[in-house]
Design brief:
149 residues; alpha/beta; 7 helices; 11% strand
Length: 149
């Protein structure tokens, strides 16, 4: 069964001193043990690398950017990325409608992720972002207990 890996989990996996690191590792290991196959969307990978670089720069750790990018490339080879940005022109009205229906809780990327999941019949997302709980067709997994139930 496929599972989208969201930015919050990817950052946690790739940045050892991230707030979510331990929980991300546990979630990652549990999803794999339960047969989930990770799916990486281009919009998530772009956001992930941007968040990692920005956080490291804000902490004065720009010397660690290269190592973080190396970990990102090891974890997410280019060939494993699913490309959804080309779908944006077609999905744009639905993206805006989903943002509107969530009263802005879902941002543009999150709405795109949710719609990409619906189109690809992906029912689960590994995320620490509770805004995805508003999406009827998507089950957010953020703890091992979510996977076991």
């Amino acid at each position: 069964m496929d599972i989208i890996i969201d930015t919050s989990v990817l950052v946690g996996l790739l940045v050892p001193n991230d707030h979510w690191h331990k929980q991300a590792i546990t979630l990652w290991e549990t999803t794999k043990a339960h047969g989930y196959v990770p799916v990486y969307l281009d919009c998530v990978t772009a956001e992930t690398i941007s968040v990692i670089v920005r956080r490291l720069e804000e902490k004065g750790l720009s010397t660690e950017v290269a190592g973080a990018i190396d970990r990102w490339e090891e974890h997410i080879p280019t060939g494993s990325i699913s490309w959804v940005f080309p779908d944006v022109p077609r999905l744009h009205p639905e993206i805006i409608a989903l943002i509107r229906s969530s009263s802005g809780a879902l941002n543009f990327n999150d709405a795109l992720i949710a719609l990409a999941c619906r189109e690809r019949d992906i029912k689960a997302i590994a995320s620490f972002d509770g805004d995805f709980d508003q999406v009827d067709w998507l089950r957010r997994l953020s703890t091992p207990e979510d996977i076991k139930t």
